[in-house]
Amino acid sequence: MKNYHLSAHLRFATRREVEAVLAMGRDFEGADLAGLNLANLDLSGANLAGARLSGANLAGARLTGARLEWARLDGAEAAGAEFAHVAAEFAVFGLARLEGASFREAELRRANFVGVMAAGADFTGADLYYARFAAADLRGAGFAEANLQRAVFRAADLRGASLTATRGQAIFDRALRDR
């Protein structure tokens, strides 16, 4: 039996439509939320697997514990957003603004952070196995106790970043790091 989702493949045109679905539940699997202003919205625990949030304004939004597997957040404005404990394997954050965002204890295996601006972001305890951070601005970001096994930091700016007690062998190809 096929499991159908209320919001699957639907295009949401307004924040009000998103809030209506939040009132009924938190299932946005496969939904198109691209370009919407969702700033400061509480999406904690929402199912956003496969959702398209490209170019969305998620500044200050709370996505704690949300499902974001295969979601597209490329070009999103998510400064100060809370992504703690999210499940976001294979998620695409490319070119997103993530300054000061929190990814504490997040599952970010194979996630794409290419070209992100994430100065001061917190990845403490996150699982970043094989995540890609090419040309990313990660100045002052925190990676304490994170799993960096096979993570790729190609030409990333890691000056002032905390890499204490990390696990695994990461690739730092042409990355800018403190000496």
User: How many beta-strand segments?
Assistant: 0
The tally of structural domains comes to: 1
Query: What is the CATH top level name?
Result: Mainly Beta
Backbone structural class: little secondary structure
Spatial gap, N to C terminus: 57 Å
> Roughly how many Å is the radius of gyration?
16 Å
Biggest beta-sheet profile:
none
**Share of helical residues:** under 10%
Structural overview:
There is one protein chain. By secondary structure, the protein is mostly loops. The chain has one domain: E3 ubiquitin-protein ligase SopA (Pectate Lyase C-like, 3 Solenoid). Helix content is 6%, strand content 0%. It contains one helix and no strands. The chain has one helix at 15-24. It starts with 14 loop residues before the first helix and ends in a 155-residue tail after the last helix. The mean pLDDT is 95.
